[in-house]
Amino acid sequence: MDGGQILLSYIKVWVILLLLSATFPNSKLAAKNTEQDKKRKLAAENSGISIDCGADEDYTDRETGISYKTDKDFISTGKNKVVAPEYNLTTLYYGKMVNSLRIFPEGERNCYTLKPIQGKNQNYYVRAFFRYGNYDSKNQTQIKFDLYIGVNYWATVEETFENKYWINYDIIHYSVTDTIYVCLVNTGFGVPFISGLDLLFMNDSSYRSMNGSLLRRVQADLGGEVSLGTIRYPDDVYARIWQLDVSLTDSVSNISTEAITNIDIQGSDNRCRLPVEVLRTAVQPRNGLKSLSYTYTSPYKENFTPEFLVFFHFAEIEQIAGGKLREFTITLNGLKYGLFTLEYLKPLTIGPYKLQDQEGLVRFSIDASSDLPPILNAFEIFELLPLHDSPTNQTDVDAIMAIKEAYKINRGDWQGDPCLPRTTWTGLQCNNDNPPRIISLNLSSSQLSGNIAVSLLNLTSIKSLDLSNNELTGTVPEAFAQLPNLTILYLSRNKLTGAVPYSLKEKSKSRQLQLSLDGNPDLCKLDTCEKKQGSFPVPVIASVISVSVLLLLSIITIFWRLKRGRLNVPLSSSVGLSLSLKSKNQPFTYTEIVSITNNFQTIIGEGGFGKVYLGNLNDGRQVAVKLLSQSSRQGYKEFLAEVKLLIIVHHRNLVSLVGYCNEQENMALVYEYMANGNLKDHLLENSTNMLNWRARLQIAVDAAQGLEYLHNGCKPPIVHRDLKSSNILLTENLQAKIADFGLSKAFANEGDSHVITDPAGTPGYIDPEYRASGNLNKKSDVYSFGILLCELITGQPPLIRGHQGHTHILQWVSPLVERGDIQSIIDPRLQGEFSTNCAWKALEIALSCVPPTSIQRPDMSDILGELKECLAMEMSSEISMRGSVEMSLVLGTDMAPNLR
Ligand SMILES: *[C@@H]1O[C@H](CO)[C@@H](O)[C@H](O)[C@H]1NC(C)=O
Ligand SMILES: *[C@@H]1O[C@H](CO)[C@@H](O)[C@H](O)[C@H]1NC(C)=O
Ligand SMILES: *[C@@H]1O[C@H](CO)[C@@H](O)[C@H](O)[C@H]1NC(C)=O
Ligand SMILES: *[C@@H]1O[C@H](CO)[C@@H](O)[C@H](O)[C@H]1NC(C)=O
Ligand SMILES: *[C@@H]1O[C@H](CO)[C@@H](O)[C@H](O)[C@H]1NC(C)=O
Ligand SMILES: *[C@@H]1O[C@H](CO)[C@@H](O)[C@H](O)[C@H]1NC(C)=O
Ligand SMILES: *[C@@H]1O[C@H](CO)[C@@H](O)[C@H](O)[C@H]1NC(C)=O
Ligand SMILES: *[C@@H]1O[C@H](CO)[C@@H](O)[C@H](O)[C@H]1NC(C)=O
């Protein structure tokens, strides 16, 4: 009998047991319901994924309570099939699951994508079922294909029509990625297929191997009764399938206990969490002999790794007179372990023992060391599967997935890991590093439209990128020049616009980069057009700005030091602002700051460059004092920018500066105090101060007014750059004011856009165009304002946390807008107290602010106009609603007599 036959007969015995178990009344299971319930609960904690491949619909298995899902959320390729009628299994046990299958006639590699909620760096029990079942009526006698877990070889599946039942491969896999791929690879011996796939979270370090995954070879329950069948889910919390092992039958006798509730399975001794049904039976040598022995020969000779892990499981189930204990040693492939002692009703797991054997032989004996014979309740043998290959660098994987998503690339072969095993992704090439990196991407003639995806810039090892012959619009990102190894960049025959970034042209001139740009009629390649667009190298702008800010600040400081307290000239007059208030910017000494804040007693916030304290001026006014933390170099620049701005601009919707302190080491800004904190806190899920719809609209109008003033009321215009709900502060009366101008930039010529090397801002609010190209203008603020409006309307943060990471608020809102489902969009806490018309209008305004390209976004003055209209609409509808309530009350009394 060769290995394959051993395996087949093994499976047959097992299946017969299963068939029997389905026909006998299952007294064992029925006997102990409470115990069962407890385990069901345990099992329920282990929310895994069970897929019935080829099934038409989701269902719950009647016997086990396992919820099977169809393939549809896990794979997009392949075809559903059912087994030939003569193979239709009617037994409950897996019957339904193994009667359907999914086949993969196309593609060299097809992969299931599993995303367990427990995520990466966890242990999982993965099991795949295969059954040919003559689905194609071709009586195939040899189908062979490879199975991969992630990027590593797992097994070679061989199936024939002669096998009535199924084969399953079980593996304990430690996943270093959030996504686990199970791939079927066509090796030229027939169409790959699969019947079922399970994945269970296994929080158990006992089964963890540092050097690979564990292939299950034997999971033997000893001494059980045939009629009680196989033990599995939900008795087993990990859904392991315990096979009744009868290979020792001739030399052993069976023992068991009925005292099942007394076996301490919850204790830490049961570290592999064996079910009580497995532990309550055991074998011992017959006729007073003192030794149990067993031999296993691996039937797998292809891709065989000669390393095994063996676990022995014991529990003393006999109460021995005189309190004597069983003592024994274990000899495994010639090595002796022990002495071991068993205590009554206490589980004991010994192992895992590692061993190597080139012949694939595992031989053990358990030998008594006292006059009591040894017992064995169960054992497990695993083969170690080394994981030689690491999956593709995660940064590259995330980037290529984002690209796939952005351009809706729908290619059957773009599935599984991009680089391994063997690249099957057309247009993509990888290097041989471990982990591999993506080095080449050819998406020419792929009908791509929209901007050049930002994610392309995250493929940091890329050497060659071909995007020619598509419909790409927008500008060429300068950041391409920062990809160190990029030597080929083909962008010809697209609809790109703007100027070609200087640095790319330089690289091309110096022959570091083959740049091709032909066939983009609106793209300006001349040097002059760059000058015209004012995009001279960024460091120059940055240093000019910081030098002038420094200059300005020192002039101001000297000015104030000289004239302290006497002169009150509004510096802002140079900007041509109408000032209703006199400038109250007043310099403070550090000692004064200490006294104002009562020695920094009360912290009321934490800003971009340090903590914010509550303070009291002599005249009784409350102020907020922002102290620059001394470690913050970045903060110093922001501090200067903010001072520079706030001493020249004043508006009722911008937070105003009361004074500042600039004494070398100690710098602080003193603002008017905003009693109601920031908008973000008001919108938090657990906020106690719920803002009603009208208040939200008013806040939107206020913020729009502040921003409109920065953009259109200031010369030069000012771009805030970090507009977000935590930068909108609220007064006692909920009047909104914009704060935190640390990142803002003023631009000498209106209409200019500037290239910034370090796109700053807050995730969720950053204009995607600005992030991609570094081109900054007023429209970047408009985008952030749109997000802010969405936040006000929906009550959701810009990045909504979920199981699979974050969802951007726009991704969340878009499908709801398409469905016209305004009720699900509007913050449920408003409980319907808003007029639907007004809500739609507000949403429309919000969405008009966020198209991907800045040209499509309106100016703040238009947005302000629309928002004011919206607010007016809401106010009038509130009035008419109140009116109609009164009306119906009147009608109610009028109609009452008629009803009688
Ligand atoms: C298999 O048999 C069951 C019960 O007789 C039946 O409901 C089911 O449709 C059959 N399935 C196939 C694939 O023939
Ligand atoms: C398949 O085998 C069955 C009996 O085993 C036979 O009746 C049938 O003709 C065979 N079909 C083909 C296509 O060979
Ligand atoms: C895994 O088990 C340990 C110990 O039982 C527990 O502390 C830990 O929280 C568990 N982890 C998960 C993710 O369930
Ligand atoms: C992993 O393998 C290395 C050598 O390949 C070995 O030194 C190490 O002991 C192994 N670690 C474990 C936990 O088996
Ligand atoms: C022990 O149990 C196995 C499986 O039920 C059975 O085949 C065997 O005959 C039993 N042995 C004895 C000695 O009863
Ligand atoms: C993947 O690539 C990124 C970017 O080059 C790098 O920072 C990271 O260390 C790489 N990860 C691994 C596991 O090599
Ligand atoms: C680029 O990679 C960085 C770091 O890995 C990540 O934070 C960012 O979201 C990625 N950007 C895109 C557009 O994929
Ligand atoms: C660029 O190529 C060089 C040489 O092949 C290599 O050493 C380096 O790691 C590559 N850089 C990146 C970011 O992949």
TrEMBL record:
Residue ranges constituting the Protein kinase domain according to the UniProt record: 598-871
Endpoints of the signal sequence: 1-30
Enzyme class: transferase
GO CC term (a single one): membrane
Major subcellular location class: membrane
The protein's Enzyme Commission number: 2.7.11.1
Source domain of life: Eukaryota
Protein keywords: ATP-binding, Kinase, Leucine-rich repeat, Membrane, Nucleotide-binding, Phosphoprotein, Receptor, Repeat, Serine/threonine-protein kinase, Signal, Transferase, Transmembrane, Transmembrane helix
UniProt entry tagged with the keyword Kinase: yes
TM segment ranges: 536-560
Membrane topology summary: Single-pass membrane protein
PANTHER family according to UniProt: OS07G0107800 PROTEIN-RELATED (PTHR45631), PROTEIN KINASE DOMAIN-CONTAINING PROTEIN (PTHR45631:SF212)
Name this protein carries in UniProt: non-specific serine/threonine protein kinase
Organism encoding this protein: Populus trichocarpa (Western balsam poplar)
